[in-house]
Design goal:
Layout (H helix, E strand, L loop, with lengths): L1 E4 L2 E4 L9 H20 L5 E4 L7 E7 L9 H14 L9 E4 L3 H13 L3 E6 L4 H9 L3 E5 L5 H12 L2 E2 L2 H8 L8 H8 L10 E5 L4 H12 L5 E7 L4 H7 L31 E5 L1 H15 L5 H19 L4 E7 L13 H7 L4 H13 L5
Parallel strand pairs: 4-12, 5-6, 5-8, 6-7, 9-10, 9-12, 10-11
Antiparallel strand pairs: 1-2, 3-4
Helix pairs in contact: 1-2, 2-3, 2-6, 3-4, 6-8, 10-11, 10-13
C-alpha cells in the first residue's frame, strides 16, 4: 500500500504476522479431540413408543440421553466448541463462559475439560442441584444468579474480566451446526428411518431452548426437499410461540419457564421462526403427566422437556387419526429424568408450583384407547 506524506510517496512494507506455532499446535490437538468425541458418540438410538396397531401411525423418540453427557445439548456443545476453536476464539488457559439453564453447561464443561481449558457456567439459582453437581464433576464451576434474565449480561462481564470467551449458545446455536449434513440430528433421524414402513415422517416435533435444534431440523428438511412438517412445542411462560406468531423478535415474558432446558423469556437470536411450520403451547402439567406415562410405557424416566414434545406429538397424531392419515412422527428424548427427581417427580414440588397433572393423565389414558386427546 502506498502512503502519501507531503510531496513524497512511501511504500508501506509492514508485515503483521500473528502466526503462533505453539498455539496452532494446541488448536490442532483441541479440534482433533472434539472431533474424536464425535466419532465415538456419533449417533443415538431411535426408540418406538407403542401405539395401537390399527392406527397405522408410528411414533419415534430420538434418545439423546445416551450421549456422554446425557442430553441433546452434547451435540450443541460439540458444535459450539468446534465453531469457536476454528474461529480462533478459544485460547489455552483462558476460560470458556456460558449462560445456561443447566444441560448445555454440563456438556460444555465436558468439552472444556477435554481440551484443557477452564469452564464457568452462569445459571439461575433455581437450576436443579444434580446439574450443578454434574458441571462440577466435569471440572467446571458455577456462577449462580437470582434472576434468569441476568445470565447473558453476567456471562459477558465474566468473559471480559477473565480474558475468556463467552460461548453464547443462544446466539450461535443455529450457525454452529452444519444443517446440510455432517451427522447432525436431522440427518441421523432420516438415515435411521430408511428401513421403516414410513421412512419420511409426516412431522418432527422439537422443543426450543436456543432454537438451534428446530433450525437444524427445518433447514435440513428444506435442503433435502422433503415434505416433513416441523412443529415446535413451547412450554408456559415462554416467548417463542408469540414471537413466532407475530414475527416480532422483541416479544418478552415476565416469568421464566418451569420446564428446564426449554422456553425462554425472550426470543433468542438462534430461533429461526420462518423455517418452522407450526408451534404449539403445552401446559406444564401436561408435560409432567406425559413423562409419567412414558415411565410406564418405556420403563424409564425422562426430563419434562421430553414430555412437552411427546404431548405435542400426541396432538399431531390425534389430528392425523381424525383425518384418516397414516404415517410416522418423530420427537426427542432430551435428557434423563433422574436429574429431576426433586422436581417433576416430586409431589411436594408440584404442589408448591400449583401443577396438577391428573386431568392430563386422564386425557392421555383416553387418547391411548380412542385416539382422542381433547379436553
Amino acid at each position: 500500500m502506498a502512503l502519501a506524506t507531503g510531496s513524497q510517496t512511501l511504500v508501506d512494507e509492514s508485515d503483521i504476522n500473528r502466526y503462533d506455532p505453539e498455539y496452532r499446535a494446541w488448536l490442532r490437538e483441541a479440534v482433533r479431540k472434539v472431533q474424536a468425541d464425535g466419532n465415538r458418540s456419533a449417533d443415538t438410538h431411535l426408540l418406538t413408543i407403542p401405539l395401537p396397531a390399527d392406527w397405522g401411525i408410528d411414533l419415534y423418540l430420538k434418545d439423546e440421553s445416551t450421549h456422554p453427557t446425557g442430553s441433546l445439548k452434547h451435540r450443541l456443545a460439540r458444535s459450539l466448541f468446534l465453531y469457536a476453536l476454528c474461529n480462533g476464539w478459544l485460547r489455552p488457559g483462558r476460560p470458556v463462559i456460558e449462560a445456561s439453564s443447566g444441560s448445555t453447561a454440563v456438556s460444555e464443561a465436558y468439552f472444556a475439560k477435554l481440551i484443557g481449558v477452564p469452564f464457568i457456567a452462569v445459571m439461575a439459582r433455581s437450576t436443579v442441584k444434580s446439574k450443578v453437581e454434574l458441571i462440577e464433576f466435569h471440572g467446571g464451576t458455577c456462577h449462580l444468579v437470582d434472576d434468569p434474565c441476568e445470565v447473558y449480561e453476567v456471562s459477558a462481564r465474566l468473559a471480559e474480566e477473565t480474558g475468556g470467551h463467552y460461548m453464547d449458545q443462544f446466539t450461535y446455536a443455529e450457525r454452529a451446526t452444519d444443517w446440510r449434513g455432517n451427522n447432525n440430528i436431522a440427518e441421523s433421524i432420516f438415515r435411521q428411518l430408511e428401513q421403516e414402513r414410513f421412512p419420511e415422517p409426516s412431522w418432527i416435533v422439537a422443543t426450543a431452548g436456543t432454537g438451534g435444534t428446530s433450525a437444524t431440523l427445518a433447514r435440513y428438511v428444506h435442503y433435502t426437499q422433503r415434505a416433513t412438517g416441523i412443529c415446535v412445542a413451547d412450554p408456559e411462560n415462554s416467548a417463542f410461540l408469540e414471537g413466532w406468531r407475530t414475527l416480532d423478535r422483541n416479544i418478552t415474558s415476565d416469568k421464566g419457564s418451569r420446564i428446564e432446558g426449554i422456553g425462554r423469556q425472550r426470543v433468542e437470536p438462534s430461533f429461526v421462526p420462518h423455517a418452522v411450520d407450526r408451534m404449539m403451547r403445552v401446559p406444564d402439567a401436561a408435560s409432567v403427566a406425559t413423562i409419567h406415562l412414558l415411565q410406564r410405557l418405556l420403563g424409564r424416566r425422562c426430563g419434562a422437556s421430553t414430555g412437552t414434545g411427546v404431548w405435542a406429538s400426541f396432538h399431531v397424531i390425534a389430528e392425523m387419526l381424525a383425518r384418516g392419515e397414516k404415517g410416522s412422527v418423530v420427537t426427542l428424548l432430551c435428557d434423563p429424568g433422574e436429574r429431576y427427581l426433586d422436581k417433576y417427580y416430586s409431589d411436594t414440588w408440584l404442589t408448591e408450583q400449583g401443577i396438577d397433572p391428573e386431568p392430563y393423565t386422564q386425557r392421555l389414558e383416553r387418547f391411548l384407547q380412542t385416539g382422542d386427546l381433547s379436553a
